[in-house]
Amino acid sequence: MANQQDPPLLINETEKDYIIPEDNDPLELEYKEIIEQERIEQLNNLPFAPVPEILPLTPLISQNVCAICRSSRSTHALIPCGHRALCEECKGLLEQQRCPICAQPFFSILRIWDA
Ligand SMILES: [Zn+2]
Ligand SMILES: [Zn+2]
């Protein structure tokens, strides 16, 4: 009798295997792995990274250039955060009384004069 019960049990197990969602589908996993490997290979085959990030320049720019128009020299600082973030034209354009650099609310604008 035991031998007759075993086959149905095996069938149930294989049925469960088919029901398992895609996540555990070995073919799917293998496919993802292949794509991953291809991506890594592509990265390894890339020529040397052409240009570094321009991050080091950003703080310098924000010190000297208006954070709104990015073209005029920033001449007006916000109080209390102290960011010299605005130019003459843009200081009147801010509808929200918040610093465009740090988003801190400000209550006054101070003209900064270079010596
Ligand atoms: Zn401006
Ligand atoms: Zn600020």
TrEMBL record:
One of its GO terms (molecular function) is zinc ion binding. Gene3D superfamilies: Zinc/RING finger domain, C3HC4 (zinc finger). Pfam families: zf-C3HC4_3. PROSITE patterns: ZF_RING_2 (PS50089). The keyword Zinc-finger applies. The keyword Zinc-finger applies. Keywords: Metal-binding, Zinc, Zinc-finger. InterPro entries: Znf_RING, Znf_RING/FYVE/PHD. Residues 66-102 form the RING-type domain. This is Putative inhibitor of apoptosis. It comes from Aphis craccivora.
